[in-house]
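ok so i was messing around last nite and threw this chain in just to see what happens. nothing serious, just curious
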Amino acid sequence: MDLTTIAGLVIGIGSLLVSVVLEGGHISSLYSLPALVIITGGTLGATAIGFTMEELKTVPTLLRISMQDEKHDVGRLIATLVSFAEKARREGLLALEEDLNAIEDKFLRKGMQLVIDGTDAELVRSIMETELAFIQERHHKGASIFEAAGGYAPTMGIIGTVMGLVHVLGNLSDTETLGPAIATAFIATLYGIFSANILFLPIAGKLKNRSAHQVLVYEVTLEGILSVQAGDNPRIVEEKLEAFLAPTKRKQARGQGEEE
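result:
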């Protein structure tokens, strides 16, 4: 479980509730079923119009990804690729075939299989870069679903508020309920803005961040695969791949490589 996502949601929602109490209000005053219906239904409906059913089916998976810890360990990946380089120089590329079944990452396994099969280096690069481009496109589409919802939610909130005010203005004769009715009308705007900025847009940002990290991992993977195929010195392979990392991360990667 990714603690930053959970902590962010708890802090965001908690801050809203605490601020209401500090102002002398009641948490129950934030509840409005009509506002909840229009924000939920309106946002989901507007978002659904802009995407296909197949794309919308990925939403539960995307939510799970945003809540999970990162799975990619760059340090271990570099150590694995360096070990492949060492083995390839000692025993040849075909000797790496026995290691394929132990590779969990599909991108790495596919690239190594192409190399072992004797595919030309330029063709390997072309195939893997195409694969990477489509991975990026899928990630972009997933994040755009939540970005779209984050754009529609505040607008739906305004629509809900306008609807509430129309109802209030149609019953001006009842002055005793005028104040509470106006306050309730603005709850829809609160729901819309709050859901966009605490839920939809942050999740989109998290997915983009995860995508950028995964793309970096795959770029390291591709460079390592091509280096193994070229028969580069393992030390050179390590230096080349560590160049993708920040200086602080390079020490961690080397430490993991020594443990391996």
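not much to say yet. The CA atoms of residues 83 and 175 lie 79 Å apart.
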